[in-house]
Structure of DNA mismatch endonuclease (Patch repair protein):
Amino acid sequence: MPRNESQGHRWKEQMPPERAYKRRAGAVAPAVEQDRAAGGHNRRSVALGDGRFARASISLRLYRSTRRIRAYLRWSQDGKTQERYVCEVEHDSRGQNLAAAWQQAWDKGLLAEEPLPAGSTASSLEVRASMRANRGKNTRPELALRKLLYQRGLRYRVDAKPLAEIRRKADVVFPGDRVAVFIDGCFWHGCPEHYRPAVKNADFWREKIEGNRARDTETNEKLIDSGWRVIRVWEHEDPVLAAERISRELRALRAGTRRPSAVQQVGDGVVETTENGPSIAAAGSL
């Protein structure tokens, strides 16, 4: 359970560390940070009345005179910023403190669930948001990763077929290095961390996601058999870390220290590469 002002506070003799309340340089975008801490984009809604909702955020403030960190819920209504005190937080990291504050905001009834639009087949707003965000190409995670790769001096093809003989495109392709990068949406590809089975039309969506997982595995195998390296990135992963991992893999390939045929899962995947070649995890983990 998160602590609050009724339980005292930890930092009585010294200031809290900056990591407990301050955003670090190079961190994910503020909206992504808030979404993760709240448990999803649609867990951040404040009811304004008349069926209207506003997207809120949590602000952490250090009060140096008392050495306490206080959390405030902030949102915009009719062009004006609104603010409501939530609680005091005492964790060592900003992420933990944001998560604790969001939970307190829910416990205090400061947040509200938005209803699903009429006719929606999604089981929740979180599922609907994932479905909408991962249609087609040029999604927000793709654009963020491509920008970072370009800033590192890397040049690539976008939404291209690694192999002409298979009708499947990768999100980012390095033809000369024979590296294909896929940015996988958590809903459509069955992310082990964030995917939640649909309640409505459960059989249809189960078959759909299982089919996507099997297709991913088949794509990996076909590319590897043709001498390509496959890198898969989940949409929830930090694009900065993903870009750095891809950059390292490319540098290693160009230096001749990495086998060309392999699968790499950036972040929290379970795909391994051995001296004898890649060991591909079960479909769905990719």
Q: What stands out?
A: Residues 63 and 69 are 6 Å apart (CA to CA). Confidence is low (pLDDT under 50) at residues 1-7, 266-286.
